[in-house]
Design goal:
The protein is mainly beta and 336 residues long. The protein contains 2 helices and 23 strands. The strands form 4 sheets. Strands 1, 2, 3, 4, 5, 6, 7, 21, 22 and 23 form a 10-stranded antiparallel sheet that branches. Strands 12-13-14-15-19 form a 5-stranded mixed sheet, with no helix packed on it. Strands 8-9-10-11 form a 4-stranded antiparallel sheet, with no helix packed on it. The chain is globular.
Length: 336
């Protein structure tokens, strides 16, 4: 989700004072104009620069937060206007596959000794509504297996399935129970459970409510005939979910974001996936909270890998294509 509300659009983190004039300009632009729709970008390649960053800018030796042990972090930047807006991602075999919130599949290597990296952009040609309208390509959740990509479209309350190699659309559904979700806080995250069922999380409104809606699908949510039931997720106080991923032991790791007083924070929760049924509640236990003075931004994307028996947690931020004031960060942790 793009940060809603005027203050969230201009969040500047630790740069807020020197960039206050820029923030005021962005605020005024937001008030007087809804902003142009994005161009129908084409597929192509560019270069990506990865700059290593510490977890804590004031204390490079600070590596542990909650149950997370910091392994590496990078600020990602490119001169290509197609880079940014990362809202969901999948990490596998040293490669990142991400979806931006304008419907661009973005692929690049995990940074290593080489910090000047190739990046590939493939806009989704098929999707809900005209490709030239940002509202019809507001893609937030990404799920991948060997052959397919599933993408959730927040404003259109849809789930589409694509061939992973060609990105041709294979199936799409507009589940009726999701149509009551608010446009800019709808289908934010999706995952597949170990038993083959799928979960789709709504971000939910920033209204102080304790729950966000969740749909539990008996199978593929991109097939209109797939049965589904309603659940709810008890979110941490003041936070809303932005992504979720399945851990190797079958539990669910949920990334949550909070915006308060021009500051962003992120909290990870672990929830049990057993016994999910209609009307049930997903409740989690806190793993870690990322907040100032740690390096973070609008943390939206989450992925899990396993390295030498260790569970690795990847978190990326969505700069909303406003790199002048926001950053695309990729953080790598070990879950202990």
């Amino acid at each position: 989700m793009k940060l809603g509300g005027f203050p969230e659009r201009i969040w500047l983190g630790r740069w807020s004072r020197p960039l206050l004039p820029v923030a005021i300009f962005v605020l005024l632009a937001t008030i007087v104009s809804p902003g142009p729709e994005p161009l129908p970008w084409e597929a192509g390649e560019a270069r990506l620069v990865a700059t290593p960053i510490p977890l804590d800018p004031g204390d490079p030796g600070h590596r542990d937060v909650g149950r997370l042990h910091f392994l590496a972090g990078w600020n990602l930047d490119s001169d290509d206007e197609r880079f940014g807006g990362l809202s969901g991602m999948h990490v596998e075999a040293g490669q990142v596959t991400a979806i931006s919130d304008v419907g661009i599949v973005t692929r690049f290597p995990v940074p290593g000794p080489a910090l000047d990296l190739p990046v590939r952009f493939d806009p989704l040609i098929e999707g809900p509504g005209p490709r030239s309208r940002r509202s019809s390509r507001d893609s937030e959740g990404l799920l991948a297996d060997r052959d397919h990509l599933w993408v959730s479209f927040e404003r259109r309350h849809m789930v589409w399935r694509y061939d992973r190699s060609t990105l041709r659309a294979e199936a799409a559904a507009r589940p009726e129970p999701m149509q009551s979700w608010r446009g800019n806080s709808g289908a934010e995250a999706l995952l597949r459970l170990a038993d083959g069922r799928f979960l789709v999380f709504a971000e939910g409104r920033d209204d102080g409510a304790p729950y966000s809606d969740v749909m539990l699908f008996a199978g593929d949510p991109a097939l209109p005939e797939t049965p589904a039931v309603r659940l709810r997720y008890r979110r941490p106080d003041g936070f809303r979910p932005t992504d979720a991923a399945l851990l190797p032991d079958g539990r669910i790791l949920i990334l949550n974001r909070r915006f308060a007083w021009l500051r962003l924070s992120a909290r990870l929760m672990i929830a049990d996936a057993t016994g999910l049924a209609a009307g049930g509640t997903i409740e989690g236990q806190e793993v870690a909270t990322l907040e100032s003075p740690l390096n973070l931004d609008n943390m939206e994307a989450l992925a899990i890998t396993v390295e030498n028996g260790r569970t690795i947690v990847w978190i990326a931020s969505d700069d909303d294509f406003m790199s002048i004031v926001r950053r695309t960060l990729l953080l790598k942790f070990e879950l202990r």
